[in-house]
Amino acid sequence: MTPNKEDYLKTIYKLGGMEELVNNKQIAEALQIAPASVTEMLGKLKREGLIHYEPYKGSCLTAEGMSAAISLVRGHRLWEVFLMRHLGYSWSEAHEDAELLEHITPSRLTSRLDNFLNYPAYCPHGSEIPHSDGQIHHHPLQTLNLLPVGTVSHIRRVTEEKELLDYLQEAGITIGSSVRIVEAAAYEGPLTLDLDGKRVQVSYKAACQIYIDRTED
Ligand SMILES: [Zn+2]
């Protein structure tokens, strides 16, 4: 499926396009498409007043683009909470179906959902649910692979990608758990973790997609 206008707005928002210019290369990588298609779509979004676009520099969201992006991200993350809490969805299933629902959820439904769920602050994968003004607090996080062996931290967020989510859920990774690396095998081999007192193993590659509280170094 080719990404549509709304996917672009969401991507620019997630890449920081509320405050700063996001370059085309970042957008192309995030959406996994050719840079030429990005340039074409950005022109369209600019004509519709959804972004400010400076060729060779990048783009950021206009007020209108911002409010569209925020309502998509809010809808997506609230649906994920609903699907997991009330319909027994798995990590990856929730992400997949929220991807569809976000595009057809009117703002009235989003705010009823928010109220029904008692205003959750995070989606099940640990991403912050923006308020209707779009503000998100960025806590300083680092990836798990950078945690020194023996140091304790907490798991806060994982990258939302289907295969990865299935792998991590299967391995027993949960948001909020305390985590300590017990052993790191040589040459980026698997990591043995102490997760809330349980022994769990994850690949080094997966550890690069698990975000934890930044530790003092
Ligand atoms: Zn999520």
The total strand number stands at 8
Q: Compute the CA-based radius of gyration.
A: 19 Å
Q: DSSP helix count?
A: 8
User: Which shape, going by the Cα principal axes?
Assistant: globular
> So what's the oligomer here?
single chain
Strand order of the largest sheet: 3-8-4-5-6-7
Sheet bearing the most strands, described?
A: 6 strands, antiparallel
| CATH architecture title of the domain at 141-213 | Roll
* Helix proportion range: 40-55%
Mean pLDDT: 93
CATH top level of the domain at 141-213 is Mainly Beta
Low-confidence stretches: none
Bound molecules: zinc ion
**What is the CA-CA span between the terminal residues?**
43 Å
CATH-level-4 superfamily name of the domain at 141-213? Ferrous iron transport protein A (FeoA)
Organism: Kineothrix alysoides
GO molecular function, one term: DNA binding
Domain HTH dtxR-type: 1-62
Subunit structure: Homodimer.
Write a structural description.
This protein has about 220 residues and is α+β, with helices and mostly antiparallel strands. Among the domains are: about 5-60, Arc Repressor Mutant, subunit A; about 140-215, SH3 type barrels. Helices cover about 40% and strands about 20% of the residues. The chain contains eight helices and eight strands, in the order αααββαααββαβββαβ. The strands form two sheets. The chain has a six-stranded antiparallel β-sheet. Helix 1 (about 5-15) packs across helix 4 and helix 2 packs across helix 3. The chain is globular, with a radius of gyration of 19 Å. The termini are far apart. The mean pLDDT is about 95. Bound molecules: zinc ion. Zinc ion (ZN) binds near residues 124 and 125. Homodimer. Pfam families: Fe_dep_repr_C, Fe_dep_repress, FeoA.
